[in-house]
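Sequence design from tokenized structure. All designs in this work follow the same two-part layout: the structure record, then the generated sequence. An example of the structure record is given first.
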């Protein structure tokens, strides 16, 4: 689905920023673009149109941002929900995810970043897609999702949001790349693109280290780095099967992370970075 087929509802009480977002979406060719400033107007718009995307300001006047989220869940077709936020606590942000937000973007952000996020996530809200988040202790989360690449984008977004106020931007980029590569391996190599199988990610932030555990339900992942000949043979086999090349990404992850450790079966990997 191209942007010309998409409709977007912008719920933002800052009128200048609201107009900026609406103008941007119109310039991108979105089919329907509606800007509203309060919850009542948002419901009226939702009753009259079926929107693919809802952009929601977390800090609406009256703090209706979070309370509006679960109300959208009861509609026949759930739109992609992107919350935009200024300053917010970790608990507030995690509450947004639990209440139904698909993604959070913290201000300031680039408008092209918002457009790319929507483009990557158009098929995120499949009726049969499962996603769960546990967050009982600050600095620790556990995520479980079906093997959809769109859900992997959500996992990356959550970990980026958690790191934003605590970790240097260069380290954040390294971690995001590592999660993307390991997560794609878990979906494609581990679970063989079987959407009925789960991937899970656990995250723990310590004073001097950040640790992730990523697990799939497959038979195990072979890292393919025993020898150059072995790697080349397996890369050619992947190409013949019509799959993306593998092996190089793991080497990149090992370059940017301090520890990359697989279990014996090969379906669980621990990665860590010293802060």
């Amino acid at each position: 689905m191209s942007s010309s087929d998409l409709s977007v509802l912008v719920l933002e009480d800052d009128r200048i920023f609201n107009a900026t977002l609406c103008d941007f979406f119109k310039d991108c060719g979105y089919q329907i673009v509606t800007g509203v400033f309060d919850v009542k107007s948002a419901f009226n718009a939702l009753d009259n149109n079926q929107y693919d995307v809802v952009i929601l300001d977390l800090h609406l006047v009256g703090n209706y941002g979070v309370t509006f989220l679960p109300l959208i869940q009861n509609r026949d077709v759930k739109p992609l929900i992107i919350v935009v936020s200024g300053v917010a606590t970790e608990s507030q942000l995690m509450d947004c995810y639990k209440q139904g937000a698909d993604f959070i973007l913290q201000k300031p952000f680039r408008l092209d970043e918002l457009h790319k996020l929507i483009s990557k996530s158009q098929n995120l809200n499949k009726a049969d897609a499962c996603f769960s988040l546990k967050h009982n202790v600050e600095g620790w989360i556990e995520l479980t999702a079906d093997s959809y690449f769109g859900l992997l984008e959500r996992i990356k977004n959550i970990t980026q949001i958690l790191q934003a106020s605590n970790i240097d931007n260069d380290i954040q980029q390294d971690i995001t790349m590592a999660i993307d590569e390991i997560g794609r391996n878990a979906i494609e190599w581990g679970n063989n693109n079987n959407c009925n199988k789960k991937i899970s990610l656990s995250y723990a932030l310590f004073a001097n280290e950040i640790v992730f555990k990523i697990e799939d339900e497959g038979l195990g992942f072979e890292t393919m780095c025993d020898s150059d000949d072995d790697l080349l043979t397996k890369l050619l086999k992947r190409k013949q099967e019509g799959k993306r090349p593998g092996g190089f990404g793991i080497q990149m992850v090992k370059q940017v992370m301090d520890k990359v450790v697989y279990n014996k079966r090969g379906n669980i990997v621990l990665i860590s970075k010293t802060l």
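The CA atoms of residues 226 and 247 lie 10 Å apart. We note this feature because it recurs in several other targets discussed in the main text.
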